[in-house]
Design a protein that fits this description.
Oligomer: single chain
CATH superfamily of the largest domain: Nitrogenase molybdenum iron protein domain
Largest sheet: 6 strands, parallel
Radius of gyration: 23 Å
Binding site for [4Fe-4S] cluster: 24, 49, 110
Strand order of the largest sheet: 1-14-13-12-15-16
Helix content: 40-55%
CATH architecture of the largest domain: 3-Layer(aba) Sandwich
Keywords: 4Fe-4S, ATP-binding, Bacteriochlorophyll biosynthesis, Chlorophyll biosynthesis, Iron, Iron-sulfur, Metal-binding, Nucleotide-binding, Oxidoreductase, Photosynthesis
Catalytic activity: chlorophyllide a + oxidized 2[4Fe-4S]-[ferredoxin] + 2 ADP + 2 phosphate = protochlorophyllide a + reduced 2[4Fe-4S]-[ferredoxin] + 2 ATP + 2 H2O
Domain Nitrogenase/oxidoreductase component: 24-401
GO molecular function: 4 iron, 4 sulfur cluster binding; ATP binding; metal ion binding; oxidoreductase activity, acting on iron-sulfur proteins as donors; oxidoreductase activity, acting on the CH-CH group of donors, iron-sulfur protein as acceptor
């Protein structure tokens, strides 16, 4: 597929700062605790935080997950108790019961930030106390002025200063992927002769990568702005590329990485011919439903720009507006270069104004958060939950068809329900 003569990199951005509809950053723990097998995420927050995590994770009562909540009671919030002393006791009790924990994350929440509980100092103190067996780090998962994927970004950025230094020439893959997807990526890179390859986050603490001036890194998630900047400050160099969503995006991502290691694009085409053909065939099946349909992205996950590129270029959709919580030039620039001019590019949100634009445009499909989906469906607009795109494996060739199908499914469902409507009316 050809690059558009004029992409959207220089399109004026509509920046909105008003009422926002976002999910809490604590939800990142749900996929991070599955990825890091010897880590534990201790949220310092309220009972509401605990209920959110339990509901989002669907944890069975007989399972022992790798996350929990240190509950801030009324006396803590009122300053009547020494919250640091209580936190130290909770951590000591946890580590005594769970000797398998090698990394402990103290995760800030809205309540802990409101009372100005200094969890960074607590992490330093506890890390020194429990070293060398356990490293204690801190990041914020607060939902105040953030979107839910920023939880992972904050977590990975917090890990960067603790990484060892190296002079080795290595590739670092950055972003939490399901193990099966990460294995596919590593296999493709190995077949191209690229290595050694490290991952952040690593599955176990002992496999944590080292970084230095000869480290190059490739993001696999488009919401890792703080992690990108932290790695750059510590001497690593980013590889700018579109993200590995769809057949085209995956190929361009691999070619950018291969070019860094002196591997010709023709070699990438040769190695990836079979999986790319499978991906294109799977995408084509869903594209029959998607082609010619208009889509509107409300800002939610920060996946919006690469997904719009995938849907417009590989599935034949038309983007009306592409909204994203934050637009990071070095990260999103290669994607915007590939999106033909036409859609509104917006950053941030004023939800009432954006809903007015949705209603005026009446797109065939609106990608939005959970809180907006049902009201829009009641108004006759088909929607796609943005959060599902984060929880579902969608990267690289083998998942490309599944990614396209996620967008085709609500349109097929609406078409099926429309077909049933005359029969239901006749039955009445």
């Amino acid at each position: 597929m050809t690059t558009p003569t004029t992409g959207c990199r220089n399109t004026p951005v509509l920046r909105e700062r008003g009422q926002r509809e976002v999910f809490c950053g604590l939800t990142g723990i749900i996929w991070l605790h599955r990825k890091m097998q010897d880590a534990f995420f201790l949220v310092v927050g309220s009972r509401t935080c605990a209920h959110l995590l339990q509901s989002a994770a669907g944890v069975m009562i007989f399972a022992e997950p790798r996350f929990g909540t240190a509950i801030l009671e009324e006396k803590d919030l009122a300053g009547m108790a020494d919250a640091h002393a209580e936190l130290d006791r909770e951590v000591a009790r946890l580590l005594a019961r769970r000797p398998d924990i090698r990394q402990l994350f103290l995760v800030g929440s809205c309540p802990s930030e409101v009372i100005k509980l200094d969890l960074s100092k607590a992490a330093e103190r506890l890390s020194a106390e429990h070293a060398p067996h356990v490293r204690v780090l801190n990041y914020s998962g607060s939902g105040i002025e953030t979107t839910f994927t920023e939880g992972e970004d904050a977590c990975l950025a917090a890990m960067v200063p603790a990484l060892a230094a190296t002079e080795a020439r290595e590739l670092l893959l950055v972003g939490a992927l399901p193990d099966v997807v990460e294995d596919q990526a590593l296999d493709l890179l190995a077949r191209l002769g690229i290595g050694p390859v490290r991952c952040l986050p690593a599955r176990r603490a002992d496999d944590a990568p080292a970084i230095g001036p000869n480290t190059v890194f490739a993001l696999t998630q488009p919401f890792l702005g703080a992690t990108h900047d932290a790695l750059t400050r510590h001497g690593a160099r980013p590889i700018e590329a579109p993200f590995p969503f769809g057949a085209e995006g995956t190929t361009l991502w691999l070619k950018a990485v291969a070019a860094e290691f002196g591997i010709a694009p023709e070699r990438v085409d040769e190695v990836t011919a079979a999986p790319r053909a499978r991906a294109e065939k799977a995408i084509a099946a869903a594209a029959q439903t998607l082609r010619g349909k208009r889509i509107f992205f409300m800002p939610d996950s920060q996946l919006e720009i690469p997904l719009a590129r995938f849907l417009t270029r590989e599935c034949g959709m038309e983007a009306v507006e592409i909204g994203t919580p934050w637009l990071h030039g070095p990260i999103h620039g290669p994607e915007l270069d590939l999106i033909a001019q036409g859609p509104v590019i917006s950053e941030g949100q004023d939800v009432d104004l954006q809903l007015d634009r949705v209603r005026a445009a009446r797109p065939d499909l609106t990608v939005c958060g959970l809180g907006l989906a049902n009201p829009l469906e009641a108004e006759g607009l088909a929607t796609k939950w943005a959060i599902e795109l984060v929880f579902t494996p969608v990267h690289f060739y083998e998942q490309a068809g599944d990614l396209a199908a996620l967008f085709a499914r609500p349109l097929r469902r609406r078409a099926a329900l429309s077909g049933l409507a005359p029969h239901l009316e006749a039955a009445e």
